[in-house]
User: Fold Phosphatase PAP2/dual specificity phosphatase family protein from Uliginosibacterium silvisoli.
Amino acid sequence: MVRDVTLRKARRPWGAATVWCLVLAVLFFATYNATNWFTAQRASVGVMAFDWERHIPFLPWTIVPYWSIDLLYGVSLFICTTRYELTRHALRLLCAQLICIAGFLLFPLRFSFDRPATDGFFGLMFDTLAGFDRPFNQAPSLHICLLVILWYHYARHVRSTAGKLVLHGWFALIGISVLTTYQHHFVDLVAGVWAGLLCLFIVGEDVPAGDARGVPNAGRRWRATHGHVEPGRRRLARIYAVGSAFCLLPAFSGYLPAWLAWPVAWAGAALMLVAAIYAWGEGAHFGVKQGRRPWWLRALLAPYLLGARVNVWWWTMGLPAHVPITEGISLGRMPLNARELEQGRFDSVLNVSAELSCPASNIGHDAHPMLDLLPPRADQLEVGADKLEALRRRGTVLVCCALGFSRSAAVIAAWLVRYRHVPAADAVRSVQGRRPQVVLSAEVIARLQQVSVIQA
Assistant:
């Protein structure tokens, strides 16, 4: 009986994969053909291409890797080992379809180069493609958007070095083929990459069911409502949304040169994601896990992360990187590099910043991401204090956030309350006495008073 149960749990979700495959296929052909037809009826459809793209060679044989994404798309659903993985992957593919179709309708573009005549087998493939893929609806490239999602998905299932080399080589060839088959302009490729990364962001990674104390972990679940969310979160979300608009509007106005419009649009898109996190997410949506952030999330948020680093330098220049507080616990800003972190001779570091990740080093890391400029909740302070206590038992600990003025100070104060039974006001004064720049509001002190005490 136990063996039968184990086999049932290990069985791949073939049936669900088949259903998803049929649903996504119908949706793909219905929406893609409809938007192609709709755009073809428009009186004027713009073109966005660089002069240097005319020097890109037309390589008929690259239609094979271009077409191969259709096979990879279908197979990708059947290599999922669990229903949960299948659902996440299918939702990403669905998200890609919705985002790209929206882009086609809002900002229609067309391909402007004449494709040379092609004979033989490759010519047949081009003719078949032309039967349903008209030269409209270019940006963001759905082909590239799906490529990003599939590349990420397959890379998680290929283990051997040789397999990874073949995988990355073939997927890179698919990416190049959208240019060498004269299917897309370069701007479509870049927009497609960004759209694919956005899908990975929206449909996030797996999360544990709960923390060590059995408390459900909703850190990566998006909120559907603002009903019970503090007003400060709404205000910050609006500020970041306005900042995004101030970047995106001039970027798409057509008045900025291309070399400037690209980074401005990138910054606006990054701020839009930050606004979404403050509106519906939690600190975990910034993706810092075990001291590091996924490469694709670093790419999406790069302009914002750069601004956050500059902000750290601006506010903390001339101040000590960290100061000792009590019993092997130090408080500081985010270390600038591994050398600075290792010079502090810490045994471990607890990063409570959501937006910044610690530099890679040989020092043990733990993360408890909390959003900046928001007073931590009592339960967040308790979890932070518990993580700090666990690290402290192994040796000296650096607790850091962006500036070392608020979130990290609140966690140390919570540790004093929870494990040393210090009154909240006294704990705050103790931390501020060591680092005068610490700012903990009356609301934070009130929440420190709600922190439960661990009896010895």
About this structure: Residues 1-8, 207-219 have pLDDT under 50 and may be disordered. The first helix runs from residue 2 to 10.
